[in-house]
């Protein structure tokens, strides 16, 4: 029972840490939106100075700095959590995942059937004759039907 309690404590601790990291995401998006907004003609939120271009440059610089600081902070926090989860045995080590992914990519990288994969070209080619013969028969039947209609009207003689 102590193992179950310990794993529950570890899970609760990591969930709290991930929730703290999650709180930075809206701040990140806000900083990005303010930086983009500084590049538009939309009026700035702050009181305008004598030089609007300088104010926009300053706002853009400040918001991009905040954005990249938050990106770095979130990245560092997530990497720390990944390390802690690996140490706790909750997720496997990185090397195992990378090796499996590389092996899967190599297996899928083989060119099969001239790049057509599992498509059987012979099967398609064998059916093209059937389609052509069928369509030709339909066209002949349609032509015959139209000629017979015209013959019935007296426009054409089929002798």
UniProtKB/TrEMBL annotation:
Component of the Mediator complex. It comes from the Eukaryota. Keywords: Activator, Kinase, Nucleus, Transcription, Transcription regulation, Transferase. GO terms for molecular function: kinase activity; transcription coregulator activity. The keyword Nucleus applies. Component of the Mediator complex, a coactivator involved in the regulated transcription of nearly all RNA polymerase II-dependent genes. Mediator functions as a bridge to convey information from gene-specific regulatory proteins to the basal RNA polymerase II transcription machinery. Mediator is recruited to promoters by direct interactions with regulatory proteins and serves as a scaffold for the assembly of a functional pre-initiation complex with RNA polymerase II and the general transcription factors. Pfam families: Med11 (PF10280). This is Mediator of RNA polymerase II transcription subunit 11. The keyword rRNA-binding does not apply. One of its GO terms (cellular component) is mediator complex. Belongs to the Mediator complex subunit 11 family. It comes from Botryosphaeria parva (strain UCR-NP2) (Grapevine canker fungus). GO terms for biological process: regulation of transcription by RNA polymerase II. It is found in: Nucleus. Gene3D superfamilies: 1.10.287.3490.
């Amino acid at each position: 029972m102590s193992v179950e309690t310990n794993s529950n404590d570890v899970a609760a601790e990591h969930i709290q840490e991930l929730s703290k990291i999650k709180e930075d995401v809206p701040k990140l998006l806000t900083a990005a939106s303010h930086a983009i907004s500084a590049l538009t003609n939309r009026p700035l939120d702050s009181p305008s100075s004598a030089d609007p271009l300088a104010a926009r440059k300053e706002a853009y610089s400040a918001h991009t700095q905040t954005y990249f600081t938050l990106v770095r902070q979130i990245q560092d926090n997530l990497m720390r959590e990944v390390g802690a989860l690996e140490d706790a045995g909750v997720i496997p080590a990185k090397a195992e995942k990378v090796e499996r992914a590389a092996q899967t990519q190599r297996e899928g990288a083989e060119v099969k059937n001239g790049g057509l994969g599992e498509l059987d070209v012979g099967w398609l080619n064998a059916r093209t004759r059937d389609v052509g013969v069928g369509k030709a028969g339909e066209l002949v039947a349609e032509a015959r039907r139209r000629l017979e209609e015209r013959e019935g009207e007296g426009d054409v003689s089929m002798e």
